[in-house]
Amino acid sequence: MDKKKVAIIASKGTLDMAYPPLMIASTAVAMDMDCGIFFTFYGLNIVNKKKYANLKVAPLANPAMPMPVPNIVGALPGMTAVATSMMKGMMKKAGMPSIPELVNVCAESGVKLWPCQPTIIAMSIDPNDIIPEAADPCGAAVYLEYARDADVSLFI
Amino acid sequence: MDKKKVAIIASKGTLDMAYPPLMIASTAVAMDMDCGIFFTFYGLNIVNKKKYANLKVAPLANPAMPMPVPNIVGALPGMTAVATSMMKGMMKKAGMPSIPELVNVCAESGVKLWPCQPTIIAMSIDPNDIIPEAADPCGAAVYLEYARDADVSLFI
Amino acid sequence: MDKKKVAIIASKGTLDMAYPPLMIASTAVAMDMDCGIFFTFYGLNIVNKKKYANLKVAPLANPAMPMPVPNIVGALPGMTAVATSMMKGMMKKAGMPSIPELVNVCAESGVKLWPCQPTIIAMSIDPNDIIPEAADPCGAAVYLEYARDADVSLFI
Predict the structure, then answer these.
(1) Which residues are bridge partners to A125 per DSSP?
(2) Would you call A108 an interface residue with chain C, using a CB distance cutoff of 8 Å?
(3) In which element (H, E) is residue B80 found?
(4) How near does any CA of chain A get to the CA of C12, in Å?
(5) What is the pTM of this model?
(6) How many CB atoms lie within 10 A of CB C79?
(7) Which residue of A has its CA nearest to B13?
């Protein structure tokens, strides 16, 4: 029987929203499923060597954060660094690997990593900054070709 | 024939984005489909007894809001309360139940409610604060096991 | 054999997040797949004639933006206009059509466009402002009826 397939689009590049696509993908392959991730818009940061170790989270406009601060405080210089550092501590506490470590796990376990070509052009990204495992820029058609035969599809 | 299945991930904890997973789930069971929701990251607030009646929405960084205010105004103290109150009025006008009411509808109609274990640890959440219908913390594998045989999968 | 089907929910109304549902839908029909989009919450702006040419993006609370500015700067009056103008330039550079053009492509190529009825009521939207191709307001049940037989389902 064919393996079950999970087709993910990763469109966010903040520290918090970089975890779900990588966690789901690495769990899927551990469960002997096939998985592919299409990185588009801000999500491309997740496979950008110059950025993926330094993804950030801003402490404003999300009143659902564990320790919300007033937006006027969250907008102050330095507060993004504070929130990012707190989030990293929280993920560590939960035994979560870092984003670069998780990207590595995904790449080594055969998760297909597709960087979005129009995003690379629009955001003037140097293709050499993308990790080698995500070396083949492509369009939405490659994602859809995989997703239409997949069992789970998620836009993150 | 087996029932159709809907597998949802709820990752947001703002008032506006708490509605879609609950509305879709309650509609799905009303249509005689099976449904499960995995609550992760900020989405865990939706099944947190101490929080779910007081979810908020911030009036900044979303220029698509019905009545956008300049971000510098939206960041002022008290403006999150104003926007939240407006949003509650809008949902009431559309005949929408409150979030706790909708959670109750979902729980009573058999929607599976899974709280994310790593989120509980990372965010130091007291398990007693989670509603009893969502009493069994689990990981992404439980979601994927359900989702891979589901007909609809959504990351919200 | 039946055509493959893609069932999308568009819930965001910012300039950046208006592109994914329209790009995926237009690509899907070009690949001879069927596609339907349910526009809910802020996503309804995408098919609102008075708004879709002027969708905006705010330069704050998203540290993953290509050229992030400090939140305190991003909150200043005029900065949303600056970020929006930059984003439009980026999309043009990547050869992307405008949002109204993409909506038109989707409508003409047979993508089903469903505006969410509760959103229309909640946000007091004049039904005459919705483009004629999305003339039939409906609820989540219409989406789910389509999605449960679809091959790809995405919440954007």
Answers:
(1) none
(2) no
(3) helix B79-93
(4) 13
(5) 0.97
(6) 18
(7) A64
